[in-house]
Amino acid sequence: MLALLCAFGTATAQRHDVGSAPPTAPPPKQIVVPQIPIVDPINIGLGPIQFATSNASVSAPQTLAIELQSSDDRMRTCALADIAAPSEYLVRGHVPFAHSVRLDFVALSNAPELDAILTVELDQHLVSAILMPQDGEWHRIATLSYATAFSDPSTTPTTFLRTNRALLENQHYAAIFHAITKGSDGDFTESEAHLRILDGHAVITASFASTERTCDPTHQHSCDFTERWFQPDTTDPQHRFLLVTATGHVKPGESGDPIARSETFETAHLRTFTCQPVTFSDATQHFESTAAATPCFIPHEPPHDGQHEVPREAQHDAQHEPPPTPVIPQKN
Known about the structure:
The chain has 332 residues and is of the alpha+beta class. It has helices at residues 2-13, 61-67, 73-82, 157-160, 252-255, 263-268, 312-319, and strands at residues 49-58, 100-106, 115-121, 125-134, 137-147, 161-165, 173-182, 188-198, 201-214, 223-232, 241-250, 270-281, 286-289, 294-295.
């Protein structure tokens, strides 16, 4: 009986007499908008660079450099395995000779002993092993490789690796790697990665597209290019840094000229510069952007003072003067 009364009461509660409140509308459905992750331009990835960390005891860097040039296949195989070269070079009977071997001793960490970078140029790869001394032994803590043919003269150990003073602790060094992804009609993207040894581990502290070029295959439109570099902020060069992005283009008639593809030519045609503030995060051990990019410099306008008006003739002449050459921020 009670159940019938509850059912009757519920049914009658839905009825509304004249003048009563209208029924309550059901709550609207919540639309869930998927969150698109924002890619930080200072950490966009390594592009064609392969990076693998490790902790393997190996021979001394000088010994490995000699073994990589040995006429003994077994000795070369062991040396290639010690630097973690791609597996295709470790097949018996197909162990290649290195086209070049480069050994750098440099302070990548804050340890008193120098670390080592052993770079080998193989038939289809450039390989750099990061070696660190520890307790009287040498350890391979990372390997970076870039798939590029030896027949391509534009990629060499020098274009792949350079060392420079670290931005965060300029008494130490950073290893800076470059690799290019080529497209059609001269298009390409160059990736740049900065490596340090922090707390005994090899860490990529920054990675960004350092150069980009996009051209119209018909040469009817301009070629657009972008250059990026990393530099200290002069307001606090020990703790604040800037990712500078410069853009420019060449005219359609110039884009097909071989000289228009040179770095010097492109740098001379850079016209807009934006600066993005960056700081180092101890939590992630990466450089991270702290604000959006803004123009690196704002054009200075003369004060609006009626007593110092520019004569009409001078204004007319100024309209026909070439624009001033922009001041390019210094690359690191």
